[in-house]
């Protein structure tokens, strides 16, 4: 995958967030890029032009992680407010707020089939969420350290 834009426009050349970018991620088809920031926003970018498509606002503290749903139509975000939010990529509207963590959400990942979202937090827990309903399916609490990264295996297990 190529990490530059038309005419060698780089992420550094794109109109900036007000504060540092914390995470950037590509959609599965490579057409969109999402960036999160200390300014409490998520920005969606068109990779082919480098043009900002939308700014998503709704977190009450910095946004540290973002992940695209496998179908590319939903974006998940997690932040220092302890919330996970699901966004409609097309409209920029917040679809759901998943508010069960007690601390910063450091990491999020969708299962390969897109039915489950996992979130890892400073509260030493991993939560598994039903994407369709927003219900917390399971909380894994046996960790002794903060959860900075989380992933599903390719077969979803």
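-> sequence recovered:
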């Amino acid at each position: 995958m190529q990490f530059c834009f038309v005419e060698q426009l780089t992420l550094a050349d794109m109109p900036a967030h007000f504060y540092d970018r914390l995470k950037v991620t590509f959609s599965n088809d490579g057409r969109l890029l999402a960036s999160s920031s200390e300014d409490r926003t998520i920005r969606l970018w068109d990779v082919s032009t480098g043009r900002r498509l939308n700014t998503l606002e709704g977190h009450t503290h910095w946004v540290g992680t973002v992940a695209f749903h496998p179908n590319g139509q939903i974006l998940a975000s997690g932040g220092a407010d302890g919330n996970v939010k699901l966004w409609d990529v097309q409209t920029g509207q917040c679809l759901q707020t998943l508010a069960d963590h007690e601390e910063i959400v450091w990491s999020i990942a969708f299962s390969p089939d897109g039915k489950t979202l996992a979130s890892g937090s400073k509260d030493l827990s991993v939560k598994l969420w039903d994407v369709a309903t927003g219900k917390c399916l399971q909380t894994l609490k046996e960790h002794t350290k903060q959860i900075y990264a989380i992933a599903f295996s390719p077969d979803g297990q």
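Residues 48 and 82 are 33 Å apart (CA to CA).
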